[in-house]
């Protein structure tokens, strides 16, 4: 039975070009399944049935999360699909086995007090501080993804009208209001900061946020700046690229925004994606009630 696993791993490496980490995960999952089959006295892949797969998933169910079980099943299904496609097996016993239901983890959100602390960190007496202040204010005011912020161009900013036109996933455009705080910070940066950076470059790009050399900041560069300010603000958690976006959405819901409007601002194709924030808002309200009510 091992030789068929070896052939599959070779296929994944040579023809599919999967990474070493992915190959290691697939190989470990399949060999673990193989050990289970051997314990059931199965000595040929042709003997494996749907019941054997269900028995394996039940056997590992107590010690693994639904996500880990789903990953193991995905490896097994891919393996049997390969055997079927290459003519080694006449059918796929895994085709009718359903994946375990995965509970979507709730997005991590910053309290408003920590957001305020983060936004107050940049030194706006310096051009870099003006840039960073505008960047942070815009992220929190609009819920932009970090990539959308890095790619934002001057033509997409409408200061007088108070909105930005964002090009998001699927190359779809959406209009997002940014409010007075972000508008004021962005105006100060464009007038007193960006012009200085642009003058240093041989030909500044169209991006709103430039580095010292007058070139557009990369996604990694932007995030490095944000994490540095989070550390300076004493935020006791590992800030992720989406945390300000999650905070933007949750804080709006807590203050009564309509879910469909939030969906539009976030650029979600389906409102079910946006609904996760209603769970976050309810969880936070329960925490606040338990903390401050005299009889929680």
Layout: helices, strands, pairs:
Elements: H1 2-14, H2 20-39, H3 50-61, H4 66-85, H5 112-119, H6 127-142, H7 146-151, E1 157-158, E2 163-167, E3 173-177, H8 179-200, H9 219-232, H10 243-254, H11 259-266, H12 271-274, H13 276-292
Antiparallel strand pairs: 1-2, 2-3
Helix pairs in contact: 1-2, 2-4, 6-8, 6-10, 10-13
Descriptive overview:
This protein has 13 helices and 3 strands; from the N terminus they run αααααααβββαααααα. With 296 residues, it is mainly alpha-helical. The chain folds into 2 domains: 2-85, Tyrosine recombinase, N-terminal domain (DNA polymerase, domain 1, Orthogonal Bundle); 112-292, hpI Integrase, Chain A, CATH 1.10.443. Strands 1-2-3 form a 3-stranded antiparallel β-sheet. β2 and β3 (173-177) form a beta hairpin. α6 (127-142) crosses α10 and α10 (243-254) crosses α13.
Strand content: under 5%
**Spatial order of the strands in the main sheet?**
1-2-3
Domain tally: 2
Shape type: elongated
* Largest sheet data: 3 strands, antiparallel
Total of helices: 13
- Give the C-alpha Rg: 26 Å
H/E element order: HHHHHHHEEEHHHHHH
């Amino acid at each position: 039975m091992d030789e068929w696993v070896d052939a599959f791993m070779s296929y994944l490496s040579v023809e599919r070009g999967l990474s070493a980490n992915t190959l290691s995960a697939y190989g470990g999952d399949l060999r673990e399944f193989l050990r289970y089959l051997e314990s059931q006295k199965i000595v040929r892949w042709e003997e494996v049935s749907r019941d054997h797969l269900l028995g394996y998933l039940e056997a590992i169910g107590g010690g693994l999360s639904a996500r880990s079980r789903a990953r193991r099943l995905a490896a097994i299904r891919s393996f049997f699909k390969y055997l079927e496609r290459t003519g080694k097996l006449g059918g796929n016993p895994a085709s009718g086995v359903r994946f375990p239901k995965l509970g979507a983890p709730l997005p991590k959100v910053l309290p408003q007090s920590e957001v305020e602390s983060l936004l107050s960190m940049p030194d706006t007496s310096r051009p870099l501080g003006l840039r960073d202040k505008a960047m942070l204010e815009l992220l929190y005011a609009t819920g932009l993804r970090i990539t959308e912020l890095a790619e934002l161009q001057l033509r997409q900013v409408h200061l007088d009208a108070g909105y930005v036109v964002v090009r998001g996933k699927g190359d779809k455009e959406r209009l997002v209001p940014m409010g007075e705080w972000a508008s004021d910070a962005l105006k100060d940066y464009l007038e007193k900061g960006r012009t200085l950076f642009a003058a240093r470059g041989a030909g500044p790009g169209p991006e709103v946020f430039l580095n010292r050399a007058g070139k557009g900041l990369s996604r990694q560069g932007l995030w490095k700046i944000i994490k540095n300010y989070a550390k300076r603000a004493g935020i006791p958690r590992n800030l992720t690229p989406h945390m300000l976006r999650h905070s933007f959405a949750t804080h709006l819901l807590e203050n009564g925004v309509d879910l469909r409007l939030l969906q539009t601002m976030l650029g979600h194709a389906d409102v079910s994606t946006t609904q996760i924030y209603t769970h976050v808002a309810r969880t936070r309200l329960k925490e606040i009630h338990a903390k401050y009510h005299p009889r929680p």
